[in-house]
Amino acid sequence: MYNEYKNILAPVDGSKYAEAAVAKAAEVAIRNEGRLDILSVINTTSFGFTYGVLSDDAITQIVDGELDYLKDLVKKISTKTGFENIHMHVRFGNPKNVITYDFPKDYHTDLIMMGATGKSAAERLLVGSTASYVNSHAKCDVMIVRTSLKNQPITK
């Protein structure tokens, strides 16, 4: 089976696994002359428990922090590869739903490449693995990344 993936989604959470997935997703996008969407989802399900009610300034700071992180990732990739068809996105919501359903529908995603894990063991126990959920429920192909661009184990 041969698929030429053109619309690749790489969701990120700041983990080394997610950044390895972005690097590999960029290589696929370059090879296929496709588009790479890097997505950060601000988890609103934790706002009530962790943050309470957030002011507009607090929300702006959170979004600005995510955008700065995404800009750094894009700059790193484009500097290293020369690839520029990279788009950054920040969304609010439940990461499982946004990554699995909402974003792929809006951007016609045909491949999701994401890190194997990004959360602590305690968080995975409480809310479950986002990667596992996406892998089980997404309508498009999903690649779970466990190694670096050079296929070496990722150290925490």
UniProtKB/TrEMBL annotation:
Domain UspA: 4-146
InterPro entries: Rossmann-like_a/b/a_fold, Universal_stress_UspA, UspA
One GO CC annotation: cytoplasm
Annotated localization: Cytoplasm
Primary localisation category: cytoplasm
Ranges in coiled-coil conformation: none
Lineage: superkingdom: Bacteria
Keywords annotated in UniProt: Cytoplasm
Pfam families in UniProt: Usp
Family: Belongs to the universal stress protein A family.
Name of the protein in question: Universal stress protein
Organism of provenance: Fructilactobacillus sanfranciscensis (strain TMW 1.1304) (Lactobacillus sanfranciscensis)
